[in-house]
Amino acid sequence: MPLTDIALRNAKPAEKPYKLADGGGLHLLVTQNGSRLWRLKYRIDGKEKLLSLGPYPTIPLAMAREKREEAKRLLADGVDPSAAKRETRRVEAVAVGDSFRTVAEELLAKMEREGRALRTLEKVRWLLGLTYDDLGARPIDAIRAADILPVLRLVEARGRHETARRLRSTIGIVFRYAMATARAESDPTSALRGALTAPTVTHRAAITEAVALGALLRALDAFDGQPTTRAALLLLPLLFPRPGELRAAEWSELDLDSAVWTIPAARMKMRRPHRLPLPRQAVEILRGLHPLTGRGRLVFPSVRTVLRPISENTLNAAFRRMGYGKDEVTAHGFRATASTLLNESGQWNADAIERQLAHVDADTVRRAYARSEHWEERVRMMQWWADRLEGWKGEG
């Protein structure tokens, strides 16, 4: 029996959602929270589908019936009404600036205003660039999981499983931003969890045995490359920072008289400022480098331009020149070296070691109460570590 305006106005929520049918597949869905939504059930190519027509009373009964008849005309021409609706929204969205690319660029601008690290912005921009050919011009609210999966599969087909995983996550961030700005209703990437090949976890190569470490330290001493590269190589085992934090170090961050290096939050992975005590040996290396690069901003400028630091490839290439393969030594691996040997020594508080590594405790409650930097212990620990490295270097 066809619906009436009185029946629609009197439709009240119940414990479970229910439908009020008008005929021809048109019905009103009444939800538990009181929403009243027009839906049209239809079949095309043997498959049953559902088309959303809008909320009642914004869409009155007469208009809902008009939309039903319009959908029937499309079906008679072999056109899927849902596909036609998405195409209409695509055209409208591009016109008003709600394409995937527009929203993604907005998000990048927001991240830049928030002071995200340049390297982070470059990575996100590069990942999003992989999507623009297929998704860039499409309205973000019309993109489904089935549209995103082929984009990810192209990356995966090149053997870049980790990149595909990160791309899915980055696309999801764009959708969540679109949801927050009322331009998307859901994040379709959540439906793609488990759809991609899981990347094989490979830990960065690191030497964690004292004799082998001593041999590496002797090789570093004998390195005869660029002075900036040599200084950075010598500081890696002494300070065990993240390579990017070391390479981009600025002279303004260093207080050599107080033997302290303060890395600003903008350059830290966890977006928190980080102080490092400098052992005597590190101060000597930096004082020796200062006459060469101290008039500029960067401690380790590239040989091509003083405006950019040396690259991580420069450091790892130096290890290859010394005869160490990528499965033996990497610039990042000195963090694992120091963490392992400092913990094995049994002389230092594990929290002091973690603080020196700039790791953040995953336990938020514990982190709230463990605000101490363990500074005094770290000062002693770093000098002990530098002296111990000298000892291992001299044992060969």
What can you see in these coordinates?
This protein is an alpha+beta fold and 396 residues long. Helices cover 51% and strands 10% of the residues. The radius of gyration is 30 Å and the shape is elongated.
CATH fold name of the largest domain = hpI Integrase, Chain A
Structural class estimated from helices and strands: alpha+beta
How far the N terminus sits from the C terminus, by CA atoms, comes to 95 Å
CATH superfamily assignment of the largest domain? Intergrase catalytic core
Q: Approximately what portion of the residues adopt beta-strand conformation?
A: 5-15%
CATH top level label of the largest domain: Mainly Alpha
Element string (H = helix, E = strand): HEEEEHHHHHHHHHHEEEHHHHHH
Summed up, the helix count is 17
Helix content: 40-55%
Strand order of the largest sheet: 1-2-3-4
Tertiary shape: elongated
Beta strands, count: 7
Our Rg estimate from Cα atoms comes to 30 Å
Give the count of structural domains. 3
Poorly predicted sequence stretches spanning 5 or more consecutive residues: 361-371
Specify the CATH architecture of the largest domain: Orthogonal Bundle
Major β-sheet, in short? Answer: 4 strands, antiparallel
Mean pLDDT: 86
